[in-house]
Every structure is written in structure tokens, then in C-alpha cells.
Amino acid sequence: MSEQSSPRGKMIGNKHGTQYLLRNRLAHRLREMQKLPYVVVTNPHLSLVYEIYYKAFESFRRVPEIKTLDDNDAYCKVISANLKEHLAIIPQLTMGVVECQGLVRPEVMDNFINTMLRARISRRVIAEQHLALTETFNSPWHFPQTRSEADFVGEVFLKCNAREIVQSCGKMAQDLVREASGTQSPIPEINIRGHLSATFPYILSHLEYIVGELLRNSLQALTERYQGSSNLPPPIEVLICEAPQHVIIRISDQGGGVPQDILPFLWSFSKGPRTESRLRNLKQVPTMAATMQELQAWSKQKSDAKNLPHDSSLGSLTSRPPHLRLGMGLPMSKVFAEYWAGNLELHSLEGYGVDAFLQISKLGNQNEQVATRASIDAV
Q: At what angle do helices 7-34 and 44-61 cross, to 10 degrees?
């Protein structure tokens, strides 16, 4: 076996690609910010984002070429440090965009933040996959993997079961809404039907974020609508449909629908009503939790967090106290879905309820939209 084809050679070869991608994609983001009007870049929140990106670019640029496993271990420490420091990016970026909505056309700022967030997904996937593969490579060969660990290739979970994801996210959302409401009002049930055995490869933390956000929105709407009522709230109906290339999850509630003043701005980060309350709430979330364990720190269910298999880079959004309305859960979920060649649509019937349709593209299938995602990455 040649050096290049050996596990050690493949590992070092992978690191060269990671070095190039992370460094170049950070450079693209810096250039993207430099194209903004000066009055926008001087916003203190966006200025901080620029400084964090520039610091990360410099730290990656100074890393010498990886030639040994020791070099790779040192590089992994650089990656881990940057992942932790970048936890401040999403709240700072969102606050900056919201504060600049009167300075630049909203469409421009929405396009800017969508590009930044999609690129952030790509970098974090590359970085976290690199760390996960390194950890697997360094694991002693004589320690057998558990069944759950064997189902992961880096960060990709090979056996995502749609029903299990909905059940686990639903239970978490129900507990959070129950805790935040502070009342004894009954929490709506969640009924699941359809193709209950639908299983596909996906990045688990991304799927948990999207499904958790949709379910919590429905639970909040129903709880608020039926608070103080003698009638039990109707259940949330979840339908799972599996096709050869994708899985569709429909989440239906009778929570009254989306208010008319919010509906036109449903997918926007930068425009819409209630700006002041959004900014107040965002200031209470200075960083995003990097693990599912930290995510659970918002609630009292820390013991359950220990049973979750993988971390979520956006976890704290998914389980922040429900009263903290940041106005970015749905647009963020749409970014996640579209990045992986999926889609998220929402149909609201005012006075009745909402139907949310999440289309999940099975990772690795022959129709995967690699060219589309390459353009999103803007490399």
C-alpha cells in the first residue's frame, strides 16, 4: 500500500483540501463585506463580524502546510478555537442587518445575510467534518464503536429516521413551551403518520434545528390561542412522505395562522415589524451554543441532553426560551433546507392555521444539486 493510499496519507491529503477551502472561503466573505457601503460596514455589530472573520483568516493563513499527523493535531486546535469564537457571528450579523434596514434597500441586506449564512454553513460543515474524521482516525482500533457511532461518517448520520426526529424534537419543544408558559394549560399533542420508516443520510443537527423550529412555532401558536379556554387545543398533525430522491414533512396546526403584518416578511432577516423587540431579544443571545448539551442548558432537561448523539452548531436558537422572539427562525431554517438542495414553504390560513412543507433532499443521491450548492458556496 502506498503512502498516499494509506489511511494516514488520506487523512493528511484531506487536511490540505480543508486548509485551502477554509482560508479561501473566509477571504470571499471579507471581500463580500468590503463591497458594502461604508455606512453599513461601520455599524458596530457588522464591524465586529468583519474583525472576527479577518482574525480567523489570518490564523488559517499562518498555518504551515500539513505534512504530519502532529501538524494536523495542531491545525485541529486552530479550527476548534475559531469555531468557538464564531459563535457570536449570527446574533451580531442579524443585529447589524436589522439596524441598517433604513440605510440600504432591504433586498440588498437580505441577499447579503443569506449569502453570509450559507457560506457559514459550508465552512462549519467542512470544519466539523474535519474534526470528526480526525477524532475517528485517532480512536484506538481495539475499542469497538457503539452502534450509534458506527452510523456516522464524520458529521453525516447515515440513518436519519424522520419519525424519530419529529418525536425527539417534538418532545423537546413541548417541554420548552410548557416551561416558558408557566401555566397548567395543556400542551398540544403531536400526531405522526405516513411513511414512518423513512430513513436517509443527513446532518442530524441541521435537521433537528429546522424541525424543532417549525414544531415550536406551531406549539406556541396553539398554546397562546387556547390559553384560558376550556377546550383542549387540537393536535399538531405531521405527515411524512418518502420519494426516491427526497422526503417531505408536512406540519399542520390550527393555531390561527400568521398575522397579516408579519406574513409579507416571513423569510426576511432585515425587514418587518417589531424591530425594537427583536433587537432587545437578540441582545439576550450574545452567542450561540455549539453543542446540544449547551442547548439544553436553557431548560431543565440537562439529563436528556447527555443522550443526544451529536452537537448542533445552532442549537441555542432551537431551544431558546420561547418568549425570546428573534424573528429569524423561519428564514434561518429556509437557508439550511435550501443549502442541502431542499426547500421550505409555509401556507397560512388566517383565522385557522398553518401548513409547513419541508422537502429534504437525501444526501448522496444521484440528483443531488452539487452545482447549485457550489454556486451558493461562492468559491
A: 150
> Tens of pLDDT along 333-354?
999 999 989 999 999 999 999 9
Angstrom CA distances, 20 to 57, 59, 126, 204, 304, stand at 11, 13, 11, 26, 38
- State the pLDDT at residue 46: 96
Q: What separation, in Å, do the N-terminal and C-terminal C-alpha atoms of the chain show?
A: 34
CA distance 230 to 185: 10
Which of 68-82 are b and which e, b meaning 16 or more Cβ less than 10 Å from the residue's Cβ? Answer: eeeebeebbebbeeb
Residue-wise pLDDT for 141-179, tens only, equals 535 455 456 687 778 888 999 999 999 999 988 888 887
Closest to 377 measured CA to CA, from 65, 20, 16: 20
DSSP string covering 205-226, please? HHHHHHHHHHHHHHHHHHHHHT
Strand partners of residue 190: 236
C-alpha 217: how far from its chain's center?
16
Which secondary structure element, helix H or strand E, spans residue 110, and what is its range?
A: helix 106-138
Half-sphere exposure of 14 (CA within 13 A, CB side): 20
Rounded to an integer, what distance in angstroms lies between the CA atom of residue 351 and that of residue 229? 16
DSSP 8-state code for residue 290: S
* 268 vs 270: CA distance, rounded Å: 6
HSE-up of 155 (CA within 13 Å, CB side)? 19
Query: CA gyration radius for the chain?
Result: 21
pLDDT class for 369, splitting at 50, 70, 90?
very low
Cα–Cα nearest to 154, from 125, 118, 122: 125
At 320 the pLDDT is 53
Write the Ramachandran bin of 341: left for phi over 0, alpha for psi from -120 to 50, otherwise beta.
Answer: left
